[in-house]
Amino acid sequence: MSTSMLRRIARKALVAGATVAVLGVGILTVQIASDWRAASAPLDAAPVSASSISDAMAAQQARAQQLAAQIDQVALQLGDVRSAVGAANGALANQSGTAAAVGNQLKAAQSKLATLQAQLKAAQQRLAQLNAAAARQAALNAAAAKQPVVVTTTTAGSGGEPGDHGD
After folding, report:
1. Alpha-carbon distance 149 to 140, whole Å?
2. Are 162 and 153 in contact (CB under 8 A)?
């Protein structure tokens, strides 16, 4: 065997060894990557136990019953509110009618007041006239009281009573 042949065989062995080494590194890299992936994100999750599902269902049913009871209470309160609103509307309608009646009474009272005020004004004018007449009469009486009184006697045949004086 010659050296060139030995070199060829050595080269071929070296290429074959390098190829096997590269394939080994590739397989090793894939194995390491799959282990790393499996460790960081496991594919199989633990299944949920039947007892935990049963417990969760019982808790949800209890919560549903509580919510149903609360809804019933709200429905009762809503009924109370509706009846109160109905009563308030009735009272408002009644008060509206009462307000109209009071308004009519007020108009009638204002009319009576106007009549009474007119009568009062007329009575005040009449009183002023009577006071003026009384003042004139008082002045005449005072003037008459200052004048001397003349007493005349009449005879029985004149038709007068004794003590009469003619004015």
Report:
1. 15
2. yes
Model confidence band, residue 143 (pLDDT cutoffs 50, 70, 90): confident
| Pair of tokens at residue 119 | 């009568």
Report the amino acid identity of residue 161.
E
Task: Tell me how far apart the alpha carbons of residues 106 and 112 are, in angstroms, rounded to a whole number.
Answer: 10
pLDDT of residue 88: 87
CA–CA dist 155, 137 (Å, integer): 33
Is the torsion defined by CA of 77, 83, 84, 86 positive or negative?
positive
For residue 157, give the DSSP letter: G
Please tell me the distance from the alpha carbon of residue 163 to that of residue 165, in angstroms, as a whole number. 6
Q: Say if CB 165 and CB 151 are below 8 A apart.
A: yes
Give the residue ranges of DSSP H helices in 41-49: none
pLDDT in tens, 53-80: 899 999 999 999 999 999 999 999 999 9
Q: CA-CA distances (angstroms) from residue 143 to 136, 139, 166?
A: 10, 6, 19
Owner of token pair 């460790």: 39
H or E element: which one contains 165?
none
